[in-house]
Write a structure and sequence with these properties.
The complex is a heterodimer of chains A (367) and B (326). Chain A has 367 residues and is of the alpha/beta class. Helices cover 43% and strands 9% of the residues of chain A. Chain B folds into two domains: 3-183, 3-Layer(aba) Sandwich (Rossmann fold), CATH 3.40.50.970; 197-324, Rossmann fold. Classes of the chains: A alpha/beta (367), B alpha/beta (326).
Chain lengths: 367, 326
């Protein structure tokens, strides 16, 4: 008997939960000009998150999926992307989307029940939120193939969760991208929970990163609450992808501090004491402590940032709430490039009954 | 101008579009060196390279899923699913993504994708190789469903499907791949989508069908003609969206209609056409609309497949029933 393959999975962490450097840091981690915009994006994500939940609780937004506790992953990865790259998010990656230029009012429109929320003014080629779990891995692999075929130095970046890593789409997309040596980065935000199903029930593997090994892809695990670590591995993976080195799978280990969505009550299936304990690992405090140690941050800057983010979010909420309702005809406008004749009669029927039904309320009346 | 069969017409159309538009790429299982199990892509990888005629790993979900990503990023992918019985793993991507990407993003992203797949029975194929999934696909808002019934229409409709800015399911009837030859000019002229083709004029009744069943339907029209009965024959061709005006105009003239399809009866497209005729043309009908379809059974293995497939005799019998009604 002989060994024909063996593998190891590295875990990357630069800052401990208190923000202390565990060893030498990458260059960017010494540079406040690089770190502060990422801290700001994380802070803005959390401000938006809290406001979105408040809007849902007061009937002004539909079901919303919070990213609380996972801000470093989206921000760290998206900050390593170039504008011409393409993002393929799940439905919990508004941290990445905000960095990409998706506007808060657009995100609110989406969660408020309006397709116009996915017609991003910037990030024009980024995919919209993906609700069918894990399917976006295949789309991202195909996009990466298109970039490679045309010889473009672009990369596709997709996000999914620990639950998504159980889907066939994940394995199939990973496998295709590997065979194609396609410029793809798959970020697996392992927040330990797929609604009520814990990580231990999701997979018997020691890590989710090692799922890459079977496809011949480099897999790395990173502390998903350490912005420095996430940004560092994402930069390396994207540089490799653009240089023709093929795909990378990053498992970013984090914890879902909120409910699955506003329609969920996580206290039904997990111990609040464990959640409380996880707050000591959350990513904003960690990066803030590091910035303080660099001499680049203090209470005044924190207060100013809090004010600025609140103003930004409030202005976005105003823009969202004052958005004119969608027209009834909108259902038909973008079904095809040109509405087939067979559908014109159905559109006309809808318009005849429109006065009663046009627009609806922002957010609707669902839970 | 060469006489070619339907599968050669598919090959000709694919080659034409690969040469015309560098955004066109083909992907699927065994489509490269092997040229596809039916030879629909024979010679294309040699001619256009492995980057544009892509042998994929064996995974239908990802064939369609990756094609969606390619389409949204500016390519014109033509994905082949080797048999339509293996299309089902890709339904999630077709229904949840391909069919609605344009709508979900208010036109910001689109999905100019063609999925080609052989369909139907009658070639003594193994299990799961003789499916007729058109109604399932046609029920999905945002998908076009097209099925050719001759080499010329295969060529012209496939050109149109590839050039269309939205997803098209292109179902190729395997029984017709090599059934007959026809002169087809490689002139790059597309046929229109979303319209029916009237294959022969008639005055006594209208026979409506698509795909391989047009072979039996035409034979039934011949048999009826021998009895002095004049049957109009319509090839629906684009099954969704449906060109009801052409069918309605014909039935308004003839007053009688028989719809023939190979797929199972319940919730089949025959039901949609019959219901539409009832809504729009009831007062022109001289007899109840008849359907001649596959049964609501599992498609049998080869020993019984011709007991399942609608026969000329069944079509003629249904036609007589409409003629005897009044």
């Amino acid at each position: 008997m002989s060994t024909v393959a063996r593998f190891q999975i590295d875990h990357v962490r630069f800052l401990d939960p208190q923000g202390e450097a565990l060893g030498p840091l990458p260059d960017f981690a010494h540079d406040p000009a690089r770190l502060i915009p990422m801290y700001r994006a994380m802070y803005l994500t959390r401000s938006f998150d809290a406001k979105a939940i408040a809007l849902q609780r007061t009937g002004k937004l539909g079901t919303f999926a919070s990213a609380l506790g996972q801000e470093a992953i989206g921000v760290g990865v998206a900050s390593a992307m170039r504008p011409e790259d393409a993002l393929f998010p799940s439905y919990r990656e508004h941290a990445a989307q905000l960095v990409r230029g998706v506007r808060i009012e657009e995100s609110l429109r989406y969660w408020g029940g309006d397709e116009r929320g996915s017609d991003f003014a910037e990030a024009r080629h980024d995919f919209p939120n993906c609700v069918p779990i894990g399917t976006q891995v295949c789309h991202a692999a195909g996009a990466a193939y298109a970039f490679r075929l045309r010889g473009e130095a672009r990369a596709a970046v997709c996000f999914l969760g620990d639950g998504g890593s159980s889907k066939g789409d994940f394995y199939e997309g990973l496998n295709f991208a590997a065979v194609w040596k396609a410029p793809l980065l798959i970020v697996l935000s392992n927040n330990q929970w797929a609604i009520s199903v814990p990580r231990s029930t999701q997979s018997a593997t020691a890590t989710l990163a090692q799922k890459a090994i079977a496809a011949g892809v480099e897999g790395v695990q990173v502390d998903g609450n350490d912005l420095v670590a996430v940004h560092h591995v994402a930069r390396e993976a994207l540089a490799k992808a653009r240089a023709g080195g093929g795909p990378t799978l990053i498992e970013a280990v984090t914890y879902r501090l909120g409910d699955h969505t506003t329609a969920d009550d996580a206290s039904r299936y997990r111990d609040p004491a464990v959640v409380q304990e996880q707050w000591s690992f959350e990513p904003l405090t960690r990066l803030r402590n590091h910035l303080v140690k660099l001499g680049a941050w203090g209470p005044e800057k924190e207060e100013a940032l809090a004010r600025e983010c609140a103003e930004t979010v409030n202005a976005a909420v105003e823009a969202y709430l004052s958005t004119p309702p969608p027209t009834t005809a909108a259902m038909f406008e973008h079904l095809f490039a040109t509405l087939p004749a067979a559908l014109a009669a159905q559109r006309d029927e809808a318009l005849r009954f429109a006065p009663r039904t046009a627009g609806g309320q922002p957010g609707g009346d669902h839970g | 101008m060469a006489e070619i069969n339907l599968v050669e017409a598919v090959n000709l159309a694919l080659a034409h579009e690969l040469a015309r538009d560098e955004a066109v790429v083909l992907l699927g299982e065994d489509i490269g060196a092997n040229g596809g199990v039916f030879r629909a892509t024979a010679g294309l990888q040699q001619r256009f390279g492995a980057g544009r005629v892509v042998d994929t790993p064996l995974a239908e979900t990802a064939i369609v899923g990756t094609a969606i990503g390619m389409a949204a990023m500016g390519l014109r992918p033509v994905a082949e699913i080797q048999f339509s019985g293996f299309l089902y793993p890709a339904i999630d991507h077709l229904v949840n993504h391909a069919a609605r990407l344009r709508n979900r993003t208010r036109g910001r992203l689109a999905c100019p994708l063609v999925v080609r797949t052989p369909c139907g029975g009658g070639i003594h194929a193994p299990e799961h190789h003789s499916e007729s999934p058109e109604a399932m696909l046609a029920h999905t808002p945002g998908l076009r469903v097209v099925m050719p019934s001759s080499p010329a229409r295969a060529y012209g409709l496939l050109l149109a499907a590839i050039r269309d800015p939205d997803p098209v399911m292109f179902l190729e009837p395997t029984r017709m791949y090599r059934l007959f030859r026809q002169e087809v000019a490689d002139d790059g002229e597309a046929l229109p989508l979303d319209v029916c083709f009237t294959l022969r004029g008639g005055t006594d009744l209208t026979l409506v069908s698509w795909g391989a069943m047009l072979h039996e339907t035409q034979a039934a029209a011949d048999a009826l003609a021998a009895e002095g009965i004049s049957a109009e024959v319509i090839d629906v061709a684009t099954l969704k969206p449906l060109d009801l005006p052409t069918i309605l105009e014909s039935v308004t003239r003839t007053g009688r209609c028989v719809i023939v399809h190979e797929a199972a009866r319940t919730a089949g497209l025959g039901a949609e056409i019959a219901a539409s005729l009832a809504e729009e043309g009831l007062y022109s009908l001289l007899a109840p609309v008849q359907r001649v379809t596959g049964y609501d059974t599992v498609m049998p293995l080869s020993r019984l497949e011709y007991q399942y497939l609608p026969s000329v005799e069944r079509i003629v019998a249904a036609a007589r029933k409409t003629l005897e009604a009044s």
